[in-house]
Amino acid sequence: MLPVKVLSASRLPGMSYTVTRSDDSRCSERRVGKGSPDTAVAVLEENFYKGDAMQDDAISGVLRPRIHESVFIAEGARIYGDVEIGEGSSVWFNAVIRGDEGKIVIGRNTNIQDNAVVHSDGEMWLQVGDSVTIGHGAVIRSCNLGNRVMIGMNATVMSGSEIGDGSVVGGNSFIGYNKKFPPKSLITGTPAKLVRELTDADTALNDAAVQIYGELVDKYRRGHFEGV
Predict the structure, then answer these.
(1) Contact criterion met (CB below 8 Å) for 124 and 140
(2) Which of 35, 106, 142, 203 could lock onto 124 through a cystine, CB 3.0 to 4.6 A?
(3) Is 141:197 a contact under the CB 8 Å cutoff?
């Protein structure tokens, strides 16, 4: 069977679309977040209809993670539901990623460190950009993290918040609902506040963290470390 081609989409309540397929049948409603029906078509066509398995999932309503083959997943990590993870990313020991309320999209070369929780909230999307570091024990709800963002250890970012590209959220900080910060922000505190704009030298540390975790993945795959 050839992959399904999405022809059209019509807006329905609750941030969802009904999609008409090339075989003139109808699939179950599929929530794709904000945007026009044309956007819905593009998202569904790209992400949900890549062969027989995806077709079956769309019809049955089963939501399974779609993870690039290059992604490193450490022992004990758990990934469930409507989750996409891009090339070169890593999910470390005992981290939990749950796309059971809304969709989660994680970009390329992003590291989700040990014991972090990434969880969608009330059908809202959760989007994490490229080259992002989410530190140990952080809690990330349905927010939008830009590219090259660093989230410090045990920090919390609540739903509806937006963190601009190249920003740093300090360890143990708490970002409440629907807070928005521009690119290259240093954000700290409980509740978190904008402290200052980061310099290029500051944001280079974000890139260094991504590089370090990329090198760690290589070492683990080569058997450089053993555990008990």
Answers:
(1) no
(2) 142
(3) no
Full pLDDT tens readout for the chain, 228 residues: 233 333 333 333 333 333 333 333 333 333 334 444 443 334 433 443 333 444 446 567 889 999 999 999 999 999 999 999 999 999 999 999 999 999 999 999 999 999 999 999 988 999 999 999 999 999 999 999 999 999 999 999 999 999 999 999 999 999 999 999 999 999 999 999 999 999 999 999 999 999 999 999 999 999 999 999
Q: Are 83 and 97 in contact (CB under 8 A)?
A: yes
Q: Cα 130–100–106 angle (5° rounding)?
A: 5
Let me know: does 30 contact 17? Beta carbons within 8 Å: yes
The domain ranges of the chain are 6-60, 66-217
Length of the chain: 228
Please give the model's pTM, rounded to 2 decimal places: 0.75
| CA-based max dimension of the chain | 56
CA dihedral defined by 23, 17, 158, 210, rounded to 10 degrees? Answer: 30
CB atoms within 10 A of CB 155: 26
